[in-house]
Amino acid sequence: MKQIQHRSFDGLQVRSEEGTRKMTFIASDGSRDAHGTVLNPDGWNLDRFNRNGIIGYQHKVYGSWDATDNPDNVIGKGRAYVEDKKLMVEVEFEPAEINELAEKIYRKLLFGSLKAVSVGFVPIGEGHFGEGDEAFRKDNETYYFEGQELLEVSVVNIPSNPNAVKKAIEDDEFMNAVRAEEEKKTAPAPEPEEVRDMTLEASKRITIAQAELTLRG
After folding, report:
1. Nearest residue to 2 (alpha-carbon basis) of 173, 182, 137
2. Is 200 inside any structural domain?
3. Which residues contact 44 (CB under 8 A, 6 or more apart)?
């Protein structure tokens, strides 16, 4: 249940600081996302991120799932904080002379052809499903995280949707595991061994009686 999760958010650019390579984004706001989950705006653990604020592109910063260890996929550094129930991320992009990709992403953000970021996090604590139509297996099934530890923030091409097959599989695996746990909670309690044995014995006797009646008939 400690898989890295990714969630993206659209309409993110709040402001860019003229004469610098800095921008501030809203990275999450506690609304329901395309995966049917809600990140707790009061449940963010930002300590590790703020010690080493990794800003990536398309989450290609783990050196495994996309088969690349390219250090230029880290395109900047960031600092995160919560303001008015929103996760805010201040980003400073690497200069062009050390990272051409960072320069390209930065200019695309200024131009407006890129405008979304996505958070990489691990869940903290035990979440829960909503009530009513947000309950488990209902039409608007919604899972509420208890808390999240922020690991990295990435600029992404498509907000609120999986950006790679591996990411889509990881998200499905997490929710499938959560649903399996919920199924266990709602499953009928197993019969005590003594009651089960009595039930089997009674069933056997009924079968024998039915067989005797058939023979007599």
Report:
1. 173
2. no
3. 80, 82, 87, 147, 148, 149, 150
> Does residue 212 lie within any of the structural domains?
no
What total of structural domains would you count in the chain? 1
- What confidence category does residue 12 fall into, taking pLDDT thresholds of 50, 70 and 90? low
- Model pTM greater than 0.70? yes
In 3D space, the residue among 57, 78, 45, 50 whose CA is nearest the CA of residue 148 turns out to be 45
Asked if the structure places residue 215 within a domain, the reply is no
Is the distance from CB of 118 to CB of 156 less than 8 angstroms? yes
Q: Classify residue 213: in a domain, yes or no.
A: no
Cβ–Cβ under 8 Å, residues 75 and 93? yes
Closest CA to 106 of 196, 16, 169: 16
CA distance 151 to 4: 9
Q: Please give the residue range of the domain that contains residue 52.
A: 5-186
Higher pLDDT, 5 or 87: 87
